[in-house]
Amino acid sequence: MDPSPGFKWRKYGLITLTSISIIWTIITFIIVCSLAEKVAEETHKEHPDIKVETTKKAVIIAVGIISSFSIAISSIGLFGALKENYCLSFTYSIFSLISLIINFTRLFTQPIYWVSFLIRLGIFATTVLFVIDLRRMRVASNNYA
After folding, report:
1. Which of 1, 31, 109, 125 places its Cα 20 to 30 Å from the Cα of 102?
2. For 46-60, what is the mean pLDDT?
3. Any residues with CB less than 8 A from the CB of 77 and at least 6 apart, and which?
4. DSSP secondary structure string for all residues of the chain
5. Quick one: pLDDT at residue 29?
6. Res 1 pLDDT > 80
7. In whole angstroms, what is the distance from residue 84 CA to residue 104 CA?
8. For all residues of the chain together, what is the average pLDDT?
């Protein structure tokens, strides 16, 4: 069975979106690390018992862990789309759903998250449609074998 007409659009859309996500995460990590000194100094002013170096290290470690996790999730989506792998793409769609739910809950506290929510909704929809196409192709290839 041939994939649906929009299959390649969804595939390359996911490749593009996950690549942008990885690049954006790396840029954010670099920016936060460059601002870690200022954050540490502000924290030290408010809480003199906390050392500047301790705060700076904590900020860098925390952002490093979060960035690594984000890159790992985006890599699952990237490789799932590149290899047209059903399992990786399905796993990424679950992570996308979790991210969508988190962004939805943020809407109630800060309305500025509407933009992020709409972007996540688009990514989730693209991922789900891609996974559905992969499933159809997988079932069709099993029926012909």
Report:
1. 31
2. 88
3. 14, 17, 18, 21, 88, 89, 92, 95, 96, 127
4. -PPPTTHHHHHHHHHHHHHHHHHHHHHHHHHHHHHHHHHHHHHHHH-TTS-HHHHHHHHHHHHHHHHHHHHHHHHHHHHHHHTT-HHHHHHHHHHHHHHHHHHHHHHTT-GGGHHHHHHHHHHHHHHHHHHHHHHHHHHHHHHH-
5. 94
6. no
7. 29
8. 90
pLDDT band at 145 (very low <50, low <70, confident <90, very high): low
pLDDT of residue 2: 63
Structure tokens at 122: 């688009």
Nearest to 124 by CA among 102, 89, 93, 98: 93
Residues 19-39 have a mean pLDDT of: 92
Give the residue-averaged pLDDT of 1-25.
88
pLDDT at residue 108, rounded to an integer: 85
- Residues whose CB is less than 8 angstroms from the CB of residue 120 and which lie 6 or more positions away in sequence, other chains included: 96, 99, 100, 103
Question: What residue segments make up the domains of the chain, in order of their start?
Answer: 7-144
Q: Find all residues with CB under 8 Å of 45, minimum gap 6, and list them.
A: none
